[in-house]
Amino acid sequence: MNPMSDTAGTYEDEGGLDPHDAARLLAQTQRKAERELDFHSPWLSVIAAGAVLVGFGAVWLSVREQHPFKGPTAAALVVLYVLVAIRIGTVLYAHSRASAGVSGRSARLERAEGAGLAAALVAVYVLMAALAGDGPGSHRAFYWVYGLTATLIVLGTFWAARSAVKEDWLGLALSIAIMLVAAGSALAGPRGMWLSDGVGLCVLLLGYAAAVAWLLHASRSDT
Amino acid sequence: MTADALDPLIHVPARLQIVATLAALPDGDVLSFTRLQDMIGLTPGNLITHLRKLEDADYLTSEKTGTGPASRTSVALTRRGRAALDDYTATLRSMLNGL
Are A123 and A145 a contacting pair, CB within 8 Å? Predict the structure, then answer.
């Protein structure tokens, strides 16, 4: 049924509004709409902070005593991948809820952005496979450092570009900080980088969540 | 300045909510009728009536896709509708500053 062809409408709410009530209703509606149509929330960042701390922490515990470095244990990788899957699942769920009923230019842009991100990640792993195929097997440390750091830099670059286009300066600052933490952590080597990345990203994500929550609170107070 | 200076098409609770909600969408996006109804909490008949008034004033556009039970109606603010909300907000602000 086309709802616009339904003629069973009623004229409610035809009365005017007191200007103060109008201003309050306008601010409330704008805030509610922005919150419901945007899938980002401080809670998602808190979940991500917990996931990186526990996931990277589990891997660090499995490699910190390795001399020579052999790579994370299967159990640690299972923990990491399960947490990554939970993170992806929560983001997809929040995104599908926020974008229900919305169509048009944003959806097309998001598909194009997703394709670009996927291509960048595939390129990183193909390059890593090419290096692994040519190099000696004892260079496991290099591939783990390269794989994790390059993944974080690609994700950070993608999010930085996206944030800049949307003039989301807080998101841009977070993305740049993530890239710097990833690059800096690589200097800590194949064992220390997991701890450095885990703690660094956890702190950044918690700081970001707190800043977003504070901004939301401040915008409520202004109205 | 009196409340008469405010756009009477928008200065009604239901239509103010509709326009403010649609203005939260990025340019080029449309919102389905059912999602809009869900977000605002109006009955379908009431929402249709207000949407028609706004559409008649060229503040919004509606688009129907599909046929039969699977058909879907989407609405979006026009440039004129966004400008009207901006004017309404500016007038309201100056009115409240003057009080």
Answer: no
| pLDDT single digits (tens) B29-63 | 999 999 999 999 999 999 999 999 999 999 999 98
The pTM assigned to this predicted structure is 0.80
pLDDT in tens, A47-86: 999 999 999 999 999 999 988 888 899 999 999 999 999 9
Tell me which CATH code domain B3-94 carries: 1.10.10.10
Return phi, psi of residue A10, to 5°: -125, 150
Say how many C-beta atoms besides its own lie within 10 A of residue A69's C-beta: 17
Q: Write the single-letter amino acid at B63.
A: E
Domain ranges (residues) in chain B? 3-94
- The structural domains of chain A, with segments of one domain joined by +, span 36-222
Residue in chain A lying closest to B29 (CA) = A104
Query: Letter for the amino acid at B26?
Result: P
CA torsion A70-A75-A79-A84 (nearest 10°) is 50
- Does residue A15 belong to the interface with chain B, where contact is any CB pair within 8 Å? yes
**ipTM of the prediction:** 0.90
Give the closest-approach CA distance of B16 to chain A in angstroms.
7
* Distance (Å, whole) CA A63 – CA A176: 28
Strands of B60-65's sheet in order across: A102-104, B29-32, B72-77, B60-65
Distance of CA A104 to the CA centre of its chain: 23
Distance CA A194, CA A189 (A): 9
Contact between chains at A8 and B45 (C-beta distance less than 8 A): yes
